[in-house]
UniProtKB/TrEMBL annotation, chain B:
This is Uncharacterized protein. GO terms for biological process: protein insertion into ER membrane. It comes from Capitella teleta (Polychaete worm). It comes from the Eukaryota. PANTHER family: CGI-140, PAT COMPLEX SUBUNIT ASTERIX. InterPro entries: ASTER. The chain crosses the membrane at residues 43-68, 80-97. Its main location: membrane. The lineage of its organism: Eukaryota, Metazoa, Spiralia, Lophotrochozoa, Annelida. Residues 1-25 are annotated as: Disordered. Keywords: Membrane, Transmembrane, Transmembrane helix.
Length: 456, 107
C-alpha cells in the first residue's frame, strides 16, 4: 500500500518533468524493495507504471506486463529464421530433468592447421636439402681436384724426393698418402732431398662444400691456392731474407711477418726483372740479383697472375704473435715458402696442371740456393742486422721477465699485509708490523760493504 | 720407397728423410668458422629449447650443418653429432609446444 501512495505522488509531477522515464526506472526499483507482503511467486508478474508518452510508443493502452521467459525467446523458434531448426525438439528441458550429458566429439589436433599451411617450414626444409646436395657436390669436386693435382705431379715429386706422401702416423714411412685436413684442404709431405729437410704442399681449395661461402664468393672472389713450405737445412745456406709478392699482399705481409718486417725494405718497381704487379721485399741486393736469374724472371713474367708470393728466409718464424705472452715464440728457422693462385674462372679454371712450371721453378731455386755466396760486405750487413734483432728480442724478453718479477713482488707484499690485517691477537699483530717495518727500513738503507781487516 | 743411386744430378737423399710432424700451430689452413658456428648453434638451440622459438631451432640446425661442413676431417664426430641432436630436439620441442605453422617474420 505504501508503494501505491508513492506512485500517485510521482504520477502527479510526471507531467511537468522531462526525465520522467528515468524516474520511472527508479520507481520500479523502489516498488520491488517496498513490497512488504514478501510473497514473491515463482514467476513474479511485476506491474510497471509506464509514463503516458512511453505508453503511446508501445501502443498498448493498458499496463504492460513483463512476459514470461518462454514467450520472450519465441523468435528463436521461428523456423524460417533458422535453417534446420526442428520444432519438436524441446528448446530447454524442464528444470527438474537430468542435465543433458555433454558429448565431446573427438577433434583431431590439427583440425585447423592443414599441412599446406607450413609454407616457411617447407622453404627451410628445401634450404636444408639444397645445403646437403651442395655439400656432397662440393666435397666430391674438391677431392677430385686434389687427386687430379696429385696424380699429375706425382712423377715430378718422386724425381725430386726420396719419400713422397707420408702421413707420419704409421711406423714405417708410407708414400702416396694425400692427407685431408679439411673438406677443402689437403696436404702432402715429401722428404729426403739435398739441402732441405722436407716440403709440405697444402692444397687450400675453395670451400665448395659450404653453401654459405659459395654465396659469399659472389661478392668477394677467391681462388684455389697451393701453399708450399720447404724446411731448408740450417747449415748449408747463406743468411738473407728475400720475398717477391703480389702487390695486393706485399705490404700486408711486410707488416705481419716477423722476418719481413725486421729485415726487408719494400721495393715497388724492379725494372728489368719483375712485372709491375709483383713487388720485391729484399734485404741484400746481392742476394736478390743472384736468386732472380733468367729462368726466374721468365717464369715470373709468364705466370704473373698465378704468383701470390715466393719467400726465402733464414729467419722465418711465422706471423707476429698478436699478444706476445699468449703465443709461444716459434724458433726462427730457414724456410722457402711459396703460394700460387689457381684461376677459378676463365680457361684455366680447375686445371691443376697449370702449376707444374711453378713447381719446377721452386726446385730450380732449391738447387741454386747452396751455390749463392754473398760478398764479405753483404755478409757483414746481414750479420749486423741479425745481431741488432737479437738484442731487441733479448731486451723485450728481459722487460717481460722484469714485469713478471715486479708483479710477483707486489703480490707477496699484499699477501703479507693481508696476513697482518687478518691477525686477531693485537699483540702478535703489532709484532708482525714491527718486523715488516724493520725489513722495509733495512731495504731502504744505502748498501755499505763491511770489510773485515785482519790485523796481523 | 725406391732406393735411387746418388748420381750427381739426382737430388734425392733417402738418408735425409724426415717423418711428417703435424705443425703445432694447426697448420696454414687453421679455420675458426667451425668453432664459431658450433657455439652459435649451441646458443640458438638453447634459446629454442627454453623459449620455444621455432626460428631459433631452425637456425641452430643450419649452424650445425655449417659447422659440420667446415670441421676438420680428424675432428671427432661426437661434437658434431651433439650439435645436430641439440638443434633437432629444439625444433621438435618448439613444434610440440605449439603446433601452429611458424609465422614468417615479414607477415
Amino acid at each position: 500500500s505504501a508503494a501505491l501512495a508513492a506512485n500517485q505522488y510521482h504520477q502527479a509531477d510526471i507531467e511537468d518533468n522531462e526525465f520522467a522515464e528515468f524516474e520511472d526506472f527508479d520507481d520500479e526499483g523502489e516498488v520491488i524493495e517496498d513490497d512488504s507482503d514478501g510473497s514473491i511467486e515463482d514467476q513474479p508478474k511485476v506491474k510497471v507504471m509506464m509514463a503516458p508518452e512511453a505508453e503511446e510508443a508501445t501502443g498498448s493502452s493498458d499496463d504492460v506486463t513483463v512476459e514470461d521467459d518462454e514467450d520472450e525467446f519465441d523468435h528463436f523458434q521461428d523456423e524460417d529464421e533458422f535453417e534446420g531448426f526442428d520444432k519438436e525438439r524441446p528448446l530447454r528441458s524442464k528444470a527438474g530433468d537430468k542435465p543433458q550429458e555433454l558429448k565431446i566429439t573427438p577433434v583431431p589436433l590439427h583440425l585447423r592447421t592443414k599441412w599446406d599451411n607450413f609454407h616457411l617450414e617447407m622453404l627451410l626444409l628445401a634450404g636444408v636439402a639444397v645445403y646437403v646436395l651442395n655439400f656432397l657436390a662440393g666435397k666430391s669436386k674438391n677431392s677430385r681436384l686434389a687427386q687430379n693435382w696429385f696424380t699429375h705431379h706425382k712423377a715430378l715429386l718422386e724425381s725430386q724426393f726420396a719419400l713422397v706422401g707420408d702421413d707420419g702416423t704409421s711406423t714405417e714411412p708410407q708414400s702416396g698418402v694425400l692427407m685431408k685436413d679439411y673438406e677443402n684442404a689437403y696436404s702432402l709431405w715429401c722428404s729426403g732431398r739435398v739441402c732441405c729437410d722436407g716440403m709440405l704442399v697444402t692444397l687450400k681449395l675453395l670451400k665448395r662444400q659450404d653453401l654459405v661461402s659459395t654465396i659469399s664468393r659472389f661478392f668477394k672472389p677467391a681462388s684455389d691456392q697451393i701453399i708450399i713450405k720447404v724446411d731448408l737445412a740450417v747449415d748449408e745456406l747463406e743468411k738473407f731474407v728475400f720475398c717477391v709478392a703480389n702487390k695486393k699482399v706485399a705490404s700486408k705481409m711486410q707488416k705481419d711477418l716477423v722476418d719481413l718486417s725486421s729485415f726487408t725494405e719494400l721495393k715497388k718497381v724492379v725494372a728489368d726483372k719483375l712485372p709491375p704487379s709483383l713487388h720485391l721485399l729484399n734485404e741484400v741486393t746481392e742476394a736478390s740479383s743472384t736468386v732472380m736469374d733468367s729462368k726466374f724472371v721468365q717464369t715470373m713474367a709468364k705466370y704473373e697472375s698465378l704468383i701470390e708470393y715466393i719467400h726465402i728466409s733464414d729467419q722465418y718464424s711465422g706471423a707476429k704473435p698478436t699478444d706476445d705472452s699468449q703465443e709461444a715464440k716459434i724458433e726462427p728457422s730457414p724456410a722457402l715458402l711459396a703460394c700460387f693462385n689457381l684461376p677459378s674462372k676463365g680457361p684455366g679454371a680447375g686445371d691443376m696442371t697449370l702449376v707444374e712450371p711453378l713447381m719446377k721453378l721452386i726446385f730450380h731455386i732449391l738447387n741454386r740456393l747452396p751455390h749463392i755466396h754473398l760478398s764479405r760486405e753483404a755478409r757483414e750487413k746481414t750479420r749486423k742486422n741479425r745481431s741488432r734483432m737479437q738484442e731487441l728480442v733479448q731486451k723485450a724478453a728481459h722487460t717481460q721477465r722484469a714485469e713478471a718479477a715486479q708483479i710477483r713482488k707486489e703480490e707477496r707484499k699484499r699477501a703479507e699485509k693481508d696476513r697482518i690485517m687478518a691477525e686477531t691477537d693485537p699483540e702478535k699483530q703489532r709484532r708482525l708490523e714491527e718486523k715488516s717495518n724493520k725489513k722495509d727500513a733495512r731495504k731502504k738503507q744505502p748498501k755499505m760493504k763491511t770489510m773485515k781487516v785482519k790485523m796481523s | 720407397m725406391k732406393m735411387a743411386p746418388n748420381s750427381t744430378d739426382d737430388p734425392r737423399r733417402p738418408i735425409k728423410v724426415h717423418r711428417f710432424k703435424a705443425p703445432a700451430g694447426g697448420g696454414p689452413a687453421e679455420d675458426i668458422t667451425h668453432e664459431y658456428m658450433n657455439l652459435l648453434g649451441m646458443i640458438f638451440s638453447m634459446c629454442g629449447l627454453m623459449m620455444k622459438m621455432k626460428w631459433c631451432g631452425w637456425s641452430a640446425l643450419f649452424c650445425a650443418f655449417i659447422s659440420f661442413s667446415n670441421s676438420r676431417s680428424s675432428e671427432d664426430p661426437k661434437q658434431i653429432l651433439s650439435a645436430f641432436m641439440l638443434s633437432f630436439s629444439a625444433i621438435v620441442m618448439a613444434y610440440l609446444h605449439n603446433p601452429q605453422p611458424m609465422s614468417p617474420p615479414w607477415s
